Automatic annotation (TrEMBL):
It catalyses: tRNA(Arg) + L-arginine + ATP = L-arginyl-tRNA(Arg) + AMP + diphosphate. InterPro entries: aa-tRNA-synth_I_CS, Arg-tRNA-ligase, Arg-tRNA-synth_N, Arg-tRNA-synth_N_sf, ArgRS_core, DALR_anticod-bd, Rossmann-like_a/b/a_fold, tRNAsynth_Ia_anticodon-bd. This is Arginine--tRNA ligase. It comes from Spirochaeta africana (strain ATCC 700263 / DSM 8902 / Z-7692). GO terms for molecular function: arginine-tRNA ligase activity; ATP binding. Residues 468-586 form the DALR anticodon binding domain. One of its GO terms (cellular component) is cytoplasm.
Length: 586
């Protein structure tokens, strides 16, 4: 799509340069990059506003005088997107050419609605996004749902903005915590299986982790035995390996079902059991190159004074790796596997220090791509009653929460008498539950702790996923009633969309590609969420105030229906980027 905003910005720059020349001002004393476009508070003040005060010094004249000169040049200039320009104090307010702008948006949206919002901003850039990263001793919990929603959305946003994206998962499938579930199962399980216990397989494994905790309270030797089991695992003891494989399969199968249920996918999966020894060679090389040093006790260390921190062990004195070492090796291996320009780690805020150090060490090792590593840090999610404070066994299970949301959504559908209107009420309820969950988790800035309120998230009114899904369904049902099909929208006279409310909707639609880019750039699905909510509200207001097709002159009805179709197309694209299922009725 033509970037109209850029075209207007260019025209403004040209006008400023010309105004400067006419006033005898030296070109070198004006800095065009300081002229930053903004959106005027209302359409009668124009569509785009450019403040002139940053130019006052270079021009040696008052901003309103500069604005007057620039506005006059723009108004009589030859940018086809500008209908008029007026000075208002220090601002130049630009009025766009409404019908040309509308025609442009309409042609993009009719020819390829699914491409609207796709841009080439990051074309040629490879972005790896790591997210989820569960442990195989228990099922996913609410924190993972936030992580998955963020990772998945950021990956889609970057892809929409033109990047080539690789979604990776790192499964923590080894360590003493894994051995704890294994040990308790071997001790007390009597050969039970998820099938015999009638449990989802990851929940089954999780129950043995809980059982271990109880056991360890009564019997202090349990912890010691878990540590021994880890040693056996590291030595490749066949029986332990066999048990490990079986139980890991159970957990991973179960977790995959949860991913499927929530629309979460990966392109590549790494396993800690395969990477936990990595990083050692790189650290030894760094030592030789004098980047690291050996401490008195023989451990290999890095001095972090450059980033205002203390020192940190990279290899223990017995030569074993740490979490950090492993991540160093893994990052390097990933870059070898898939040479990215940028990598994002979606991991909880409690690991800020870890990633700060990790990125620094990789830079010290001389990897240029290490400049473009980003820790997308997110806060805790609690339920209103304060659960999730990770007391053993009481974390909010992801599957249970989803089931709860689904039954609440089903109850709501029944109460509204909508269950008979949809083909499959259960599937619709599930889609509403996902919309509620993902929107609620994504509308908040990631770094903040948050409270997930199930019933609030499901409200059909207000700033929620179901509200947006409802707006989408309402537009769809109107299209059906009117028998309107976007494909036949070719002969529409868009000049009939002559109300300010219609122009405001068109401009909002036109901003979508830019919102996608900004949301990707800022790792901020919340920005897109806010945009969609505003669009939903503007549409609802319009729909409330304006008859679209009933009792409306046919040509006008066609134009209005097309406009509604454009809103719908943008909402669908936006839903997809946030992981909100679209429903054509609800
Ligand atoms: N599995 C880890 C945990 O539960 C998170 C791993 C994060 N990713 C990484 N590359 N370190 O805390």
């Amino acid at each position: 799509m033509v970037n109209i905003k850029q075209a207007v910005q260019d025209a403004v720059s040209t006008a400023i340069v010309q105004a400067a020349a006419e006033a005898g001002v030296d070109q070198d004393s004006i800095d065009l990059s300081q002229v930053i476009v903004s959106l005027p508070p209302s359409s009668d003040l124009g569509d785009l506003a450019f403040p002139m005060f940053p130019l006052a010094r270079g021009f040696r004249s008052a901003p309103p005088a500069i604005a007057t000169a620039v506005a006059a040049l723009l108004a009589s200039g030859n940018c086809i997107w500008i209908a008029d320009a007026r000075a208002a104090g220090p601002y130049v307010n630009v009025f766009l050419h409404r019908s040309r702008y509308t025609e442009l948006i309409a042609s993009d949206l009719t020819s390829a609605p699914e491409k609207f919002g796709r841009t080439s901003r990051y074309e040629g850039r490879k972005v790896m996004v790591e997210f989820s990263c569960p442990n195989t001793n228990k099922p996913l919990h609410l924190g993972h749902l936030r992580n998955n929603a963020l990772g998945s959305s950021v990956a889609r946003l970057y892809a929409a903005a033109g990047a080539e994206v690789e979604r990776v998962n790192l499964i923590n499938d080894r360590g003493v915590h894994i051995c704890k579930s294994m040990l308790a199962y071997r001790e007390f399980g009597n050969g039970a299986t998820p099938e015999s216990a009638g449990m989802k397989s990851d929940h089954f494994v999780g129950s043995w982790y809980v059982r271990f905790a109880q056991w360890a309270k009564e019997d202090p030797s349990a912890e010691q035995r878990a540590a021994e089991m880890l040693q056996q695992w590291e030595a490749g003891d066949p029986e332990v390996m066999e048990l490990w494989r079986t139980m890991n399969r159970w957990t991973i199968d179960g977790i995959n079902q949860t991913y499927l249920r929530t629309g979460i996918e990966f392109d590549r999966v790494y396993y800690e059991s395969e990477t936990y020894l990595s990083g050692r060679t790189e650290i030894m090389e760094g030592l030789e190159r004098g980047i690291f040093y050996t401490a008195e006790d023989g451990a290999i260390m890095v001095d972090l004074a450059e980033i205002g921190l203390d020192t940190k062990v990279l290899l223990r004195k017995d030569g074993t790796s740490l979490y950090l070492t492993q991540d160093i090796g893994t990052a390097i291996a990933r870059h070898r596997d898939w040479p990215f320009e940028q990598m994002v780690y979606v991991v909880g805020s409690e690991q800020q220090y870890h990633f700060h150090v990790l990125f620094h060490v990789l830079k010290k090792l001389g990897y240029t791509w290490a400049e473009n590593l980003y820790h997308l840090s997110y806060g805790m999610v609690n339920l209103p009653d304060g659960r999730m404070k990770s007391r053993e066994g009481t974390v909010v299970d992801a599957d249970d929460l989803l089931s709860q949301l689904t039954s609440l959504a089903l109850a709501e559908l029944e109460e509204r008498g909508r269950d008979s209107e949809v083909d499959d009420p259960q599937a619709t309820a599930h889609a509403i539950a996902l919309g509620a969950l993902h929107y609620y988790l994504l509308m908040v800035t990631p770094n903040k702790d948050m409270v997930f309120d199930p019933s609030e998230s499901l409200s059909f009114t207000g700033n929620t996923g179901p509200y947006l899904q409802y707006v989408g369904a309402r537009i769809s049902s109107m299209m059906r009633k009117a028998g309107f099909d976007m494909a036949s929208a070719a002969s529409i006279d868009y000049d009939l969309l002559n109300m300010d409310s219609e122009w405001d909707l068109i401009k909002a639609i036109g901003r979508f590609p830019e919102v996608v880019e900004r949301s990707a750039e800022g790792y901020a699905p919340s920005e897109l969420a806010g945009y969609l909510y505003d669009l939903g509200k503007s549409f609802s207001r319009y729909y409330h105030d304006t008859p679209v097709f009933q009792g409306v002159e046919p040509a006008t009805a066609q134009a209005r229906l097309a406009l509604c179709g454009f809103v719908l197309a943008v909402m669908r694209q936006g839903f997809d980027l946030l992981g909100i299922p679209f429903l054509d009725r609800m």
